Amino acid sequence: MSSGGRSAASLLSGSNEAVRGELLDGILQTDQYQLTMAQLYWKEGLAERHVQFDFFFRSYPDYGTHQAGYCIAAGLGPLLEWMGDTRFGRPELAALAEQRTADGKRRFDQGFLSWLEEHGDFSAIDMLAVPEGRVVHANAPIATVRGPLAMAQILETPLLNRLNYPTLIATKASRVKEAARGGPVMEFGMRRGPESGAHAGGRAALVGGCDFTSNVALSASLGIEPKGTHAHSMVQAFMALDLGELEAFRRYVDLYPDEAILLVDTIDVLESGIPNAIEVFKGLRAQGHKPGGIRLDSGDLAYLSVQAARMLNDAGFEDVSIVISSDLDELAIWSILSQIDEEAPRYGLDRDSLVRRMMFGVGTRLITSHGDPSLGGVYKLVAIDDLAGSWEPAIKVSEDLEKIPIPGEKQLFRVYDERGLASADVVALADEDPFEGDLLELHHPHREVHRSMRRSEISRVEALLESVFEDGRRVDGSPDLGTIRERRALDLEQLDTGVRRLVNPHIYHVSLTSKMKQLQLDLVAEATGASGSIS
Amino acid sequence: MSSGGRSAASLLSGSNEAVRGELLDGILQTDQYQLTMAQLYWKEGLAERHVQFDFFFRSYPDYGTHQAGYCIAAGLGPLLEWMGDTRFGRPELAALAEQRTADGKRRFDQGFLSWLEEHGDFSAIDMLAVPEGRVVHANAPIATVRGPLAMAQILETPLLNRLNYPTLIATKASRVKEAARGGPVMEFGMRRGPESGAHAGGRAALVGGCDFTSNVALSASLGIEPKGTHAHSMVQAFMALDLGELEAFRRYVDLYPDEAILLVDTIDVLESGIPNAIEVFKGLRAQGHKPGGIRLDSGDLAYLSVQAARMLNDAGFEDVSIVISSDLDELAIWSILSQIDEEAPRYGLDRDSLVRRMMFGVGTRLITSHGDPSLGGVYKLVAIDDLAGSWEPAIKVSEDLEKIPIPGEKQLFRVYDERGLASADVVALADEDPFEGDLLELHHPHREVHRSMRRSEISRVEALLESVFEDGRRVDGSPDLGTIRERRALDLEQLDTGVRRLVNPHIYHVSLTSKMKQLQLDLVAEATGASGSIS
Fold it and tell me: Which residue of B has its CA nearest to A251?
């Protein structure tokens, strides 16, 4: 290799920021063991043997006091874009050539690096996946990857990295949007978000139900308008200049007469902020403008919202928005709106009108998925090409029965009941038609529990996995954010309200067909020497 | 502007990935309200008025069942690099020119965009900061930014984004390293980490005490060796090919004879994994190699570690490492090592030898700061240039007394006691010498509590804030990771063990001098009309 003599450190030193940035975004964004395993597969002649890995998660986010009953798939589009663009190029191969074992030997053989130079991209990978924005469930495969063992193995880490966190955040956003009763939700989390991961978090929040983000770069890259209000520092600056809060508000609405949302808690909400806001709103009205709203960012947000509504209504501003923020999540919003339901009538306010004028700025607790900051999605080897035209199923027999995956090549169906609501996701063998008989036996993925469903109880069956990556490029039609958001909305409409419940939701059924269950039992028996059959 | 007619969507459409990536990494990585406020300041002739903002956090991470008593500052280096490189360029100005209000008008005036074109970088910003890697405390300023109001305001979001999350993760890593009794800790979190933020998380983990990361791209960019073992999928693949676990191990150690760490829990740890590992280790020994170790990734890690040690010792492998992983954090490690302390002697094992051979792979719970996934660092306006050669202090009077910041231009000192241990961080006015008298009065930052310290109790006083950014570039000497890690180690040695305690730590004192306390009280009184004085 032409760069053989250069050390990674010199190649990547401070003066060469472009190379450093390229490496961080590139195909080395994987775990070291993927590369050492890939080299073993290369040495054993297995690098190009076709295999299948499944991506799935085993349990929904559990936020401690509340739990998710479904997830929203997110992150697929950016993953597919990255897979199409990335490969082992010169800087990556140079970095691997520089790796040394403790005794100073090269860790990666030149033959392996040459193999990577030729085959080190994802052009031989095929992927099926549940499209972004759709409701997805525990234990059901959300993506299946087929392709050469070495590259499918290297893909594990970047795939999990690009799907786990976005799915986690889209799920939280969906819950926040539900708690907000469909009212406008703005994502404000960049300042407490995970450094550059805040972009993926913001995008996932939009996928999951947020209407806007304050993140300007992300909005510009998606072609949407960002949203925001103003900060306490603006009022403080005018105060320090002896101009005061009222003058700060006046000058701000003078510049933004048709979209000013005034933050009223820098000094005192009821004594200073709202009276000052009303005064400048009167000026706006006199000039023919329609004031935007006020924002509350501290204190008892339910009480202050009711009092703000009273004061604004008394001044004839019944339409201006009341934006609340400050450590909000789905439970806080639910609780605040419940309190407003109760208190508004006591002050002569119509509660539905008040709830309709509310907007929600949600930051830290959304972008960190407060309560459960990770989705445990995994990527498991489920089958290997037997070189005789079939897939040999693979399994891991864990200490923990709940961790035994569903083996082999498979299909995923969603079954809708007589009401048109999704009632089960069914995992079947690739070559069976599980709906041909009148009675469908459905088995728990890990426990010896099963139930029956009659064909007549099923109004519709839908195959969920679609081809999304072939021949080195995405083939999912590159849906835009609007399309993805519509998928979420439609899937939620078709989901039982019990499964959508914010606290202690009803458990959605993900089941195996009898044939798939038998395959799983057979493989466990084969690996452990024990025997098993469907009870 | 030359790009006037192009829409943001067209400028940023799928075909122009480079522009999209540039925007996501660039100066628009801020909240929308920073830009609308900046335009107001520009319109009011205040854009170039000098101000001071402080960065600080109000409370340590609280993980629920355990709490941090200190934090490790992290993220400063990458922040300073970014500040030196970024500015409002053509794509950013084009994106702002495309923003529209609801009635279709441009939100940003051409005059403001022209101002940004000329002044839209951080070359007029000066920053002082506590260096990366150092122990830092709640309520003490970790960074102070001085410069023109508009650009200092725009900096808020990217500064918080680049300091909050890394400081959170470095803090968690430091605790993990302490729980591991200084033993080797590897960061394995990329797959569950926050998408591209996993790089910042991995770097922060190294700052905070981890010895290695499995993240190949990050390691290469830092010029260090990544570490890893192998996955269950490798054993599964050999099993599916009817070769089995033993053959998988054999072929793996044949390729990596001097650094193989074998994952022994794919089938059964004690019945299959460890016996097979011992068999291949015997082969290695016969060839003159030194086996690396085994890894346990499920089950009762304490019990299995003890049993693994017994079996390995019986075969004469008393030195090979025992790596544990699987949802580890500081509390899990502490608990596992405590159990080993107790159980090892029952099996005739020397507990210290066993603990010394342990290594720790820490993933999800580190990179997400499990238990408390955000650091609430804030960036508050504390002073504004009065155009008469002085700083006019600024304050926000919140609903919550704990949120009232420390106003004005200031200094931060660390005071060491007779034992050479840090005993307090002291915030003073910029122009006072708090140590000139024999008695130092120290006031709580928010409560009416104070105490006295005699000069004779103080062995050393250290100024913590250093100049790190001037004239548009970093001036902190660009310390490497090793230097940063040494700072952490030294600071921890000088920290009381009570403050370092993993659960319910002793509270470290951050105090105001009498003059600073009086300034805070005066400003609150001025803003609210009440009066206050030091009790």
Answer: B40
Does residue B60 sit at the A interface (CB-CB below 8 Å)? no
Interface test with chain B among A16, A20, A23, A31, by most B beta carbons within 10 Å:
A31
Residues 296-315 of B with CB under 8 A from A: 298-299
Question: How many domains does chain B divide into?
Answer: 2
Span B230-283, pLDDT tens digits: 999 999 999 989 999 999 999 999 999 999 999 999 999 999 999 999 999 999
Residue B344: inside a domain? yes
B210 and B345 together in one domain: yes
For residue A379, what are the β-bridge partners? Answer: A55
B330 and B175 Cβ atoms separated by less than 8 Å: yes
Minimum distance, in Å, between the CA of residue B11 and any CA atom of chain A: 9
Residue carrying the six token digits 């992927």: A127
pLDDT mean by block of 10 residues, chain A; 535 residues: 35 51 92 98 98 97 97 98 97 96 94 98 98 98 98 98 98 98 97 98 98 97 94 92 95 96 95 97 96 96 98 97 97 98 96 97 98 97 92 76 83 96 96 92 91 93 98 96 97 97 96 94 79 53
Contact at CB, A220 and B33, closer than 8 angstroms: no
Give the three-class secondary structure for A58.
Answer: coil
Inside any domain, residue A49: no
> What pLDDT is recorded for position B494?
98
Same domain, B105 and B222: no
- Indicate if B113 and B251 belong to the same structural domain: no
Region at A387 (left for phi over 0; alpha for psi -120 to 50; beta for the rest): left
A211 within domain boundaries: yes
Closest chain B C-alpha to A334 CA, distance in angstroms: 22
A195 and B149 in contact by Cβ < 8 A?
A: no
Q: Does B75 contact chain A (CB < 8 Å)?
A: yes
Residues B200 and B106 in one domain: no
B354 shares a domain with B227? yes
Residues of A in contact with B232 (CB under 8 A): 380-381, 396
**3-state SS, residue B105:** coil
Q: What CATH number does the domain containing B352 carry?
A: 3.20.20.70
**pTM, whole model, 2 decimals?**
0.95
Nearest to A236 among B81, B85, B395 (CB): B395
Residues B352 and B221 in one domain: yes
- What one-character-per-residue DSSP string does B454-507 give? EGGGEEEEEE--EEEEETTEE-S----HHHHHHHHHHHHHTB-HHHH-SSSPPP
* The pair of three-digit structure tokens given for residue A527, joined into one six-digit string: 């690996």
pLDDT digit string (tens) for B444-489? 998 888 999 999 999 999 999 999 999 999 999 999 999 999 999 9
B84 touches chain A (CB under 8 A): no
Contacts of A236 in chain B (CB under 8 A): 381, 394-396
Residue where a domain terminates, one of B367, B395, B414: B367
* Spatial CA neighbour of A131 closest among A507, A480, A524: A480
Picking from B294, B416, B286, the residue whose alpha carbon sits closest to that of residue B361 is B294
Number of Cβ pairs < 8 A linking chain A and chain B: 385
Q: Are A19 and A119 in contact (CB under 8 A)?
A: no
In a domain, B512, yes or no: no
Strands A410-417 and A458-463: antiparallel
- Which of A37, A237, A399 lies at the smallest CB-CB distance from B149? A237
User: Which residues of chain A are within 8 Å of residue B101 when distances are taken between CB atoms?
Assistant: 256, 258-259
For A218, the domain range is 172-367
Whether A192 contacts B379, CB under 8 Å: no
The answer to whether A226 contacts B99, with C-beta atoms less than 8 Å apart, is yes
Under DSSP, is residue B8 helix (H, G, I), strand (E, B) or coil? Answer: helix
Structure tokens at A475: 């083939």
What is the distance of C-alpha B366 from the center of its chain? 11
